[in-house]
Amino acid sequence: MNIKDNINNAGSAWMNVDGPESDIVVSSRVRVARNLKGYPYPHLLEQEKAADIIRAAGLALQDKALAEETGGFEVARMAELSPVERQILVEKHLISPDLLVGYEKKAVALRDDEVLSVMINEEDHLRIQCLLPGLQLKKAWELVDRVDDGMENTMDFAFSEKFGYLTTCPTNAGTGMRASVMLHLPGLVLLDQLKGILISISKLGFTARGLYGEGTEALGNLFQISNQVTMGRPEEEIINSLNSVAVQLMLQEREARKVLLRERGEQLKDRVGRSYGILGHAHIISAEESMRRISDLKLGLDLGLIKDINPVQLMKLMVMTRPAFLLQQQQGHFAPLQRDVQRAELIRKSLKGEVI
Amino acid sequence: MNIKDNINNAGSAWMNVDGPESDIVVSSRVRVARNLKGYPYPHLLEQEKAADIIRAAGLALQDKALAEETGGFEVARMAELSPVERQILVEKHLISPDLLVGYEKKAVALRDDEVLSVMINEEDHLRIQCLLPGLQLKKAWELVDRVDDGMENTMDFAFSEKFGYLTTCPTNAGTGMRASVMLHLPGLVLLDQLKGILISISKLGFTARGLYGEGTEALGNLFQISNQVTMGRPEEEIINSLNSVAVQLMLQEREARKVLLRERGEQLKDRVGRSYGILGHAHIISAEESMRRISDLKLGLDLGLIKDINPVQLMKLMVMTRPAFLLQQQQGHFAPLQRDVQRAELIRKSLKGEVI
């Protein structure tokens, strides 16, 4: 399979709803930052040396032992992809928006099922990432660890006995690891309890971000919680501690949903019902409204208020209705109104089961 | 059939959509005001004399010749009906809100199909009314004329050679006739053209009112157009001239709909689709929002944008979702929220064809 095929398909393994606690924990992600000895950090890297690193990473991933243990990867230089294709990889959460800046020197390696990916020459030379559905931080860490070990067999990583793995930004040094969970928290938002909770979490060394990372808005009541500290604690400890935070938030969200059902049941049904009706019948809809209403549907589905929707389809819709994915599907340039018309049509068909 | 049965059924002959031009002209109404010689006008009438008039009207309507020609009537004193039942007669457009004030002296006579009715001791002793679906002013006038002639056989109407029929309010004297059409004009409202048109119409001696008569709001884009002048022109001329106004408005509305479809087709489909989706899935909905969205659906139906709705059902819904009808159906007292919940449920079921 080619990466372009991945781009043309909205689905991804992380949207699978068989994951543990996937009613609230949409996905778990772990990534580690690694840099090669003897090369400047990416922002100082010349074109030729950047190409060397891309080549070396590709070879490391083709190593027989690694491929056997973790599956084969497909490498694509960002320059091979169109701007829209690059944007879709962001919308699918497979790469970060940073990989689009100065993309001539950058590349991505992707395992076919999109669970494992390696960003090359993003902020660091390598960012090895695992993205799994539901609450599976430990498994995600194990998979990343295996790719990391495999690549280290043929590559020489910058490491200091004192600081651990060295990274472009010192806040990533040490383990070089960031773990995060993407949580769907409409109940806490509706009860206006989330802000207070996020402040407490930040005091524990975790940070909450919007759907597409730092500085982005929390579209569709989706929040990413990740560790702030990467140094001075072993990876397993960080993973366990984030896992506890996720479980805590999950319990609070479940409690919030119970309260909402008990005290504002009709309002909740009305909200979910209206969003369902509008998504099924609107002819013009913005990306923002789509996300908001799809979030309502996911909540309704999780609470059993609506039943005839495929939950995986709903997660796919979150990606399919993003601007770049829509553009790619339509293969053309559209005025904003036309894009909103296309989006509404896609959603209508999707909810009728006509699109997969 | 008893009048209470009429009250319990939301349907009425005027909601029939087989009427001419019924895509825009919902209904046609003609009523004449008559007073009996030798009795004070209703607002000065004592209880006993009011009862005399109710009795006399009942007898006149039971006259064999009249009953054969126009069908039999059922008479009910307002005091026999509960407040909710009285309000439903208003919501069905069978009596005016004025008949509810000082109702102890008042009564209504109703033909089974609700096409003909006589309000007794409203502003005048008798108000004979005919209400037909679509644009049928001439037929409505003929039916009223027959009841009028039939009642005059046994009753002595106050009439002056100089002023014609005498009425409580001098603006009704002469023919004593008011004719009106109820028009659904969403296209002209959406294009913001209606206000200007209504000003021109008022210069021709016609007046526009909301759904429930003078001083009421134009709910659901429904407007009543009626003649202001009752004196100095024969009935047929008034009828013809209102008919021309209705035809003119109808053509303008059709043109407006064409313009909307051509220039704002997607917005129109979006509006109709969202209203359809919301009515089919909301769990809380106010009377005002219902009317607005049912109006959108009627427009969508008339333009062929939606197809799977029974148009008579839609007209019934306009009555069924009014506050009193809803109360009557639920046989109980509800807080406003509960009423909005009941209304939403009724609409959902109705659109699924579960309620008739």
Verbal overview:
The structure is a homodimer of 356-residue chains. Helices cover 47% and strands 15% of the residues of chain A. The first copy, chain A, is α+β, with helices and mostly antiparallel strands and 356 residues long. Chain A has an eight-stranded antiparallel beta sheet with strand order 2-3-4-5-1-8-10-9, with helices on one face. A two-stranded antiparallel sheet of chain A has the order 6-7. In chain A, a hairpin with a 4-residue loop joins strand 3 and strand 4 (116-120). In chain A, helix 2 crosses helix 5 (137-154), helix 3 (64-70) packs antiparallel against helix 5 and helix 11 runs antiparallel to helix 13. The longest helix of chain A is centred in the last third of the chain and has 29 residues, at 235-263. The model of chain A has no long low-confidence stretch (mean pLDDT 89). Chains A and B meet through helix 9 and helix 13 of A and helix 9 and helix 13 of B.
